[in-house]
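Input chain follows. Return structure tokens only.
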Amino acid sequence: MAFIGIPFLMVFLFFGVGIIGTLFWIWMLLDTAMKEPSEGNDKLIWIIIIVFTHLIGALLYFLFRRPKRIQEYGR
């Protein structure tokens, strides 16, 4: 009987991780589109990276570019 609950728990766990990852991806995409300065092609390049690499691109933006942008532009 206990074995029936394990697959359901794994489905809900993976579903939750997928939802959180997608929400994070949308947040980084909107953050890039709305707050990234339009100097050169930086905004467009970051949007393309985030769209085509999904969670990896969003993490790269969040960890590397976003802190630098906040430090330089204050937003």
